[in-house]
Amino acid sequence: MSHRSIRHRVPAVLVALVVAVTAALVSPGPAQAAVQNNYLLNNGRYSAVGVGVWHDNHTGGYDGILPANRNTVDQWGWDHVSAFYIGTGYCADLFRTPAANPGTWTFVDTVSPGRTNLSYSYSYQIHPFTAPSC
């Protein structure tokens, strides 16, 4: 093989190596492959109040206010939600359905004002309403 033919093959090998390394960096690993696909629906059946929501589980203020009759997917395109906040003077009936296999909504509890943490295993629907106590 001549010196010239080896020199022309080096760029092709280099390109193949760069493509392989780039594909490995872009491909989802085990943590990225586990998609969290739950959502929160703020059902305005009894009250048109917005609720504070956290996209990721962190301390500090909520990430946004979800208006009545909206869900976190349509409002922000979120693939998950970790908590919501109901303000003073309100309560909320909380319902859930399995996130992986949605179906019938099951009543969970009536929640008081404050932060309510959610499981990624379920999608949730809340019905906020005004009340002096819950």
Structure explained in plain terms:
The chain folds into 2 domains: 3-31; 40-130, Sandwich (Gamma-B Crystallin, domain 1). It is built from 3 helices and 9 strands; from the N terminus they run ααββββαβββββ. The chain has helices at 3-26, 30-33, 72-76; strands at residues 40-42, 51-54, 64-66, 70-71, 83-86, 90-98, 106-111, 114-117, 122-130. Strands 4-1-9-6-7 form a 5-stranded mixed β-sheet. A 4-stranded antiparallel β-sheet has the order 3-2-5-8, with no helix packed on it. The longest helix is centred in the N-terminal third of the chain and has 24 residues, at 3-26. Residues 1-35 have low confidence and may be disordered.
| Annotation, overall tally of beta strands | 9
CATH topology of the largest domain: Gamma-B Crystallin, domain 1
Helical/strand content category: alpha+beta
- Compute the separation of the termini in Å: 85 Å
Tally the helices: 3
Q: Average the pLDDT over all residues and give the rounded result.
A: 79
Total domain modules? 2
pLDDT below 50 for ≥5 consecutive residues: which ranges?
1-35
The top-level CATH class of the largest domain is: Mainly Beta
Helix content: 10-25%
The CATH architecture of the largest domain can be given as: Sandwich
Q: Sheet bearing the most strands, described?
A: 5 strands, mixed
Radius of gyration: 24 Å
Strand order of the largest sheet: 4-1-9-6-7
Shape: globular
